[in-house]
Amino acid sequence: MSEEHKNSKGVRKPVSKEPEQIHVQHVNAKGKVLSDKKVKKGKKVKKPWTFKRVCLRILLPIVLVLAIIAGGLYIAFQMYKEHLLNQIEYIPRDTNPTFINEESSVVELSSYTTQTSNAIIEEEGIHNFLLIGIDSRSKKYTENGTGSLADVIMVMSVDDNAGTIKLLTIQRDCYVYIPGHSKPQKINAAMNYGGPELLSKVVENHLRLELEGYAYVNFYNMEKVIDAVDGIDLEVTKSEVNHVPGGLNENLAEQNRILGVPEDTYKVYDSGMIHLNGRQAVAYSRIREVGNGVYGRSERQVKVLNALLSKFADLGTIKKLKALDDILQMIATDVPKEDVEDYAFDFLPKVRKMEIESMGIPIDGYSRQGMFSDVRENEWSIRPDWNGMIPLVQDFLYGERTEFDRVDEIPKAPKHEEEDIPKTSSTEEPNE
Length: 432
What we know:
Order of helices and strands: EEEEHEEEEEEEEHEHEHHEHHHEHEEEH
Low-confidence stretches: 136-146, 426-432
Number of helices: 10
CATH superfamily of the largest domain: LCP protein
Strand content: 15-25%
CATH architecture of the largest domain: 3-Layer(aba) Sandwich
């Protein structure tokens, strides 16, 4: 029976009593006491903040939010990557390419292809591609043999294992034997007769290597590529700037006339280390009347490419993606889209040295050049010793030499016996 007492008005009121206390312990799974205290009976007991509770109540929501953000960023990146890849023009590979022979007949290239006795040198992880600079990206030709000539011819060698890029620059005036034509002629004519497929076959035949595809770009579109990275810095001499004919400013004036703008647009007044925009850099790369002629021109082209690659590497992520958006629009290739993705997003980030190693073809001392009339009357041409250069090209690309089928000799070209060809490292260019 509960205790009661009367108040001043005689009303009975129960006597208050202290709540009963109970003893509470929190013990973990290992039997360790986490807390030990007395609490009032009927009062809600707060659980202590264990690691598990912290994870469930605080960390888990944070992780979920971060996962959602990461998932969204990944999807956005994949969508933008797809956008970039779609800027390239992909050319379906022609399984049965044709070309024009010397009788002006359209014939199948496969009918002029022969198997070599010696296997073509191969190295796992090394891939070779043909790069072509022309005035028009169309590979079409007419029955009388008129069409686009190759203005720039290069072999780009990508080494997945070493993370390097190498370039062989081939002078367009080099004499070669084109399938279906009995007399030798300049290599850029192959593009005229049969497009990139025929040009690829000619390069393979004369360097005894395998090409995995080609890419080409309108030569003057290089202006937009360089402008996409905000121009490049190059060391330019006074002679290169002002030489007449064929100096930088004269080449620039010619391009301005084509574009219908004043001839002195972007005229260069300085020399030394100067900043060039796209049009100025293209004019610089076309100089061939200063210094070592066509060889100097190739050296300038490589300088421009190295400066472009270096500038691209220094861009921030946003600017780099914007530049890629512009650059990829200039490319047409028969390399499958999935392979382009591998090189653009897997290989390029692994490149160890943002500098292109280069070798010029013909190699110094392995050709004769000048005006000749033995094949065509008063034609200026370069007569290379292809058999002498093949071992040096193998050294440069693969670091080793193998036996190869000899190439038909070019008239009036010098001849080097194998024992006379020096061993070279991948970065040296030999002298005779």
